Amino acid sequence: MNAPAPHRGGAAEARRRRRHRADRLLRLLGLGAISLALGLLGVLIATLVIGATPALTQTKLRVTFAISPELIDPADPGIGAYRLILRRGVAALLPEQPTTMAEWREIGGIVTGNTQFAIRDAVMADPSLIGRNLTLTVPVSDAYDQLGKGLTSRDTPPERRKLSDREIARFDALTARGAVSRPFNWELITRSNSRFPETAGLAGAIVGSFYMLLVCFVVSFPAGIAAAVWLEEFAPRNRLTDAVEVNINNLAAVPSIVFGLLGLSVLIGVFGLPRSTPLVGGLVLSLMTLPTIIIVTRAALRAVPRSIREAAHGVGASRHQVVLHHVLPLAMPGILTGTIIGLAHALGETAPLLLIGMNAFITDPPGGILEASTALPTQIFIWAGSAEHGFVSRTCAAILVLLGFLLAMNAVAIYLRQRLERKT
Amino acid sequence: MNQSFQTHVAPIGAAAAKISTRGVDVFYGPKQALFGVDLDIPRNQVTALIGPSGCGKSTFLRAINRMNDTIAGARVEGEILLDGENVYDPVLDVVELRARVGMVFQKPNPFPKSIFENVAYGPRIHGMARSRAELAEIVVRSLRRAGLFEEVKDRLDAPGTSLSGGQQQRLCIARAIATRPEVLLMDEPASALDPIATAVIEELIDELRANYTIVIVTHSMQQAARVSQRTAFFHLGRLIEDGPTAEIFSTPRRRQTEDYITGRSAAQRPGP
C-alpha cells in the first residue's frame, strides 16, 4: 500500500487555506452583526439622551405676590382675583408697567397657566397669608422655557416665533434682575400629566404602571406556575393536553392588541370593570404574561435533573412533596428570571392599554387599582402626539425613564438568578 | 431456544423469602423489558443481579419499589410479594412501600441541601420524629451506620453536594436507611466511584446485611462475588439462573451464565 499521505501536500494545503478562510469569514460575519446591533443601540440611546437633555432642567421665575386683602373674599379665601394678584406680582419685577389689557395678558402668560391656582391653594391652606407677601418659584410657560434654554433662536424672524420682540425683552429684563433660574427638573417624576409641558410629569404614569404590574404579577405568577406544574408533572399525555400545550404556545404569539380587544369587550363590556384602571390593564397584561411564565416555568422544571426526582421518590416522597420540596425550589431561579423578563415585557406594552382607555388625560396619580390612570408607555404615546415644543424633550426623557425601569428589572432578574443559583 | 426455562438451583421457599416475584413482566410502552421473572430474595442476605447491559436487571430492581411508576408508559404485570403482600395491590400506598424499600442509585444524587437535611428529609416526611432532638438522633444514627458520621460530624450544615463522590454515595445510603426500611435496593452503587471508595461501599454493604435485605445490581463480577450471598443472572429480559453466589460463579448450570461470567460473547460461542 503506497497511497500518498492524504493530509499532506498541495491539495491538503489548499483545503486548509479554504477552511481557514471560511472560519475567518464566519467570525467576521458574527462580529459585524454584533457591531451593527451595538451601533444601532448606541445611536438610539444617544438620540434619546440628547433629546431628553432639555427636559432635565426647567426654567423658573421667582416672584413675590402681594396677597392684598381687598382682592380676596374674606368669607371664602377660595374666591378672589388671583389672576390679578399673579399679573401684578410678575409686573412688579419688570422695569416698565403694562398699560394695555393685551400687555397685562402677556405678562400673566410668562409663568405657567396653573400659577394662579397655585397661589389660591397656598392661601387656602394658610389664610394668614392674606395681607402678606407670598414668594414662589414657578415654572415659566413653554415658549419662555424654550427661550431660556436657547432652543428658540432670537434670530428667527418674529412672524415665525411664538414670542414677540417685546416679550423677549421682558424675559431678558427678568433674567437681568436675577429672577430667572434653571434648577434640576424633579417635577418630571414628582408631578403628573398636565396640559402644559412645563408642569407635566410622570408620577401618575409610574404609579399606574406599578399598580398594573402588581396586578399582573399577582394574577399571572401563581397561575402560571400552577399551570406549568400540572402540565409538566401531573398531566397525562393525551390529545387534550397536547391541544392545551399547542394553544399555550400559540397564546404567546398572539398580537398584544388582540388582548386589548379582549379586555375591552370582556373585562369592561361584560364584567363591567371600570375603564382606564390599572386593574383592567393588569389583567390584560397578565393574559399576555401568563403563556410566557408557563413556558419558562416548564423549561425550568424540565431542567431539574431526573436524579433529584428519583431521589425524592426513593425515600418515599409523594408526588406533591417531590414537586414542592425539591423540583420547584430548584426551578425557582429560572422561573423568577422568566417572570421578571415577562413583566418587563408587560411594562413596555402599549397597544392593549390604548384600547382599554389607559391613554386618558389624568392629572393625579391613581390611589389604587380601581382609579383611572395612565401608564409609562401610554404617557409616552400621549406626549409624543402633543403639539407643544416642551413635550418633545419630555417624551425623550419619559422613554429614558421607561428604559431605566426595564434595565433595573433585568438587573434584578440577573441578581436573583445568580444569588439563588449560588445557594443551591 | 429455551431461554424462558428457568432453573432454581437451591429453592429457598417462599416462606423464607423477603421478596418473591411470580411471573413479572414489565413493559415500556409497546416494548417488553422483562419476561416472566420468578425470583425469591432471602431476608438479611445480599442478592446480586448481574447480566449484560439492557438485560432488565435494573428494570427488575425498580419494579420492586415501584419506581417504574414514575416513568410514563411503564406497566408491570405479575406479582411481587413483599412479606407476602403484593406491592402492586391497588390498596397498597406507594409512599409507604418506598419507605419500607429504600433505594440507592447509580449516580450519587444527594439533594442540593445540607448533609443534615439530606438524611432528615425522609424521617421528616414520614413523621418518624416527634422533636428536633429525635430527628437529630436519627440523622446521627443513620450517618454512623453508613460509615460517614466521623467524616462529616463537624459540617452537617455543609451542602451534601460538597462531599466527594464516595462520601455522597454513603450519604445517599444514610438517607435511604434513615426511614428504617426493611429492604435496600442498590442500582450499581459503586459504578461511579474509584476503587477505594468502592471498597468502602462494599464493606458497608456487608455490614448492612445484618439488618436489611439487600438487592444490588452490578456490572462487576468481582463485586458480585465479594458482596453477595446469592446471584441472579439476567439475559435479554429473562432470569436465566439464580442460586448461591459461590455456585453460580464456580459451577453455573447454564451456558449463557458461564459465557457471561467468563467474559465470552455470543459471537465467540461455538454454534449449538
From TrEMBL, chain A:
Its main location: membrane. One of its GO terms (biological process) is phosphate ion transmembrane transport. It comes from the Bacteria. It is a multi-pass membrane protein. Residues 206-413 form the ABC transmembrane type-1 domain. GO terms for cellular component: plasma membrane. One of its GO terms (molecular function) is phosphate transmembrane transporter activity. SUPFAM superfamilies: MetI-like (SSF161098). InterPro entries: DUF3333, MetI-like, MetI-like_sf, Phosphate_PstA. The keyword Signal does not apply. PANTHER family: PHOSPHATE TRANSPORT SYSTEM PERMEASE PROTEIN PSTA, PHOSPHATE TRANSPORT SYSTEM PERMEASE PROTEIN PSTA-RELATED. NCBIfam families: 3a0107s02c. This is Phosphate transport system permease protein PstA. It comes from Amaricoccus solimangrovi.
